[in-house]
Amino acid sequence: MSYRIFFSKALLLIGMVFFGFSAFAQSWPTKPIRVVVPFAPGGGTDILARVLAPRLSELLGQPIVIDNKPGASSIIGSQIVAQAPADGYTLLMVDSSILVNPGLRSNLPYDTLKAFTPISHLAVGPVILVVNPSVPAQNLSELVKLAKAKPGELFYGSGGNGASTHLAGELFKMAANINIGHAPFKGTGEAMAAVMGFNLPMTFTGISSAKQPVAAGRLRALALTGERRHPAMPNVPTFAE
């Protein structure tokens, strides 16, 4: 196949810090810090938050509390942070959906550019397409043939409307000229559970959440985005390949 798909899953840590940094640094933090993850447990954003939390707690000298608030493509959790006091004790860890949502929804309950202050760009990784092992497609070409033989019958899961996993799926549909449906979830963890539970044939997700299930044989990885293979899963070809 000659088409190329480039789509990365970027993760951002953003918060509400609008006061002078020098005064802020002298007194902060003096109590636990809440990190809202606007997706269900088990997805890449949630995994990264829990990996970073112990080290952040050690560096800051305060507990880091991970609080999953999934729903509405990260909007529910983002709104909670937008409405929280601007004191640096409520942070948001989110992926690229926070940048996509303003283009998809005209009635967001917050102004993305005014409500949040970016703190750090944490990670960038590819989006990976995985299928249930029972799906009769051993590679991407076979999956495309299967989808063309059954137009409208196959569905893919994602972390929600507007998530990078959703946009990757739509781009794949356009590039391959296939008709597959979209099943949005409150996070990629829920989407993967549906695929592993035989309730959905395939989903797009991140490498951090897919690597272990693929190694255990509970999922089959067909392709990932980007210009080259990823060192964490070197046997998985790129969509470009």
Molecular structure report:
With 241 residues, this protein is α/β, with parallel strands linked by helices. The chain is built from 9 helices and 9 strands. Strands 1, 2, 3, 4, 5, 6, 7, 8 and 9 form a 9-stranded mixed β-sheet that branches. The relative contact order is 0.20.
> Biggest β-sheet: count, sense, barrel?
9 strands, mixed
Give the helix level as a range of percent: 25-40%
Mean pLDDT: 89
Number of strands: 9
Strand content: 15-25%
Q: Give start-end ranges of low-pLDDT stretches.
A: 1-6, 17-23
Rg estimate, integer Å:
19 Å
Shape field: globular
Number of helices: 9
Query: What pattern of helices and strands is seen along the backbone?
Result: EHEHEHEHHEHEHEHEHE
Query: What structural class is derived from the secondary structure elements?
Result: alpha/beta
Gap from first CA to last CA: 7 Å
Task: List descriptors.
241 residues, alpha/beta, 9-stranded mixed sheet, 9 helices, 24% strand
What is the secondary structure topology, with strand pairs?
Layout: E1 8-15, H1 21-27, E2 33-37, H2 44-60, E3 64-68, H3 75-82, E4 90-95, H4 97-104, H5 112-115, E5 117-131, H6 140-149, E6 155-158, H7 164-176, E7 181-184, H8 188-196, E8 202-206, H9 207-215, E9 220-224
Parallel strand pairs: 2-3, 2-4, 6-7, 6-8
Antiparallel strand pairs: 1-4, 1-5, 5-8, 5-9
